[in-house]
Amino acid sequence: MTNINRKIRAREVRVIDPDGEQIGVVPIEAALKTAADLGLDLVEVSPNANPPVCKIMDYGRYKYEQTKKKQEAKKKQTTFQVKEIKVRPKTGDHDLQVKMGHIRKFLGKKDKVKVTVLFRGREITLSDRGRELLQRIAAEFEDIAVVEQYPKFEGRTMMMVLSPK
After folding, report:
1. What angle do CA 83, 84, 87 make, to 5 degrees?
2. pLDDT at 76 over 90
3. Does domain 82-164 bear CATH number 3.30.450.20?
4. Residue 124, number of CB atoms within 10 A of its CB
């Protein structure tokens, strides 16, 4: 039940036992025999050292623990989504307050918010009104959000991105 990661070209290797204690520099055959007697694997840890360093361990358990550590690290990662709120330059005050409530809820959940002002037909002449609207929204949320992308025009839309502090 021995397992060697790579072929070891050296005749002797430095061996570390399962408890982390150094056994010393021994021939490969003796190291393999010691690992087999313990029912464990001989794994090459440092191939570039002179002599190469090998450790006696349960390789299957080691790989299992490595995958568990990766899964645990993945769990602790923070993820966020980009939520989009669309308004028009002539959106009423009450409707705007409702949309701001949604923005506050999204920012509370640590999501980014993309605020888009849509211009239809001749409304494109009201671009200054759209910019004022976005600035008003940014001012409203300056305590809990940062403007990640300032208002900019793309075709018939003007957008801004807010991210939570």
Report:
1. 150
2. no
3. no
4. 14
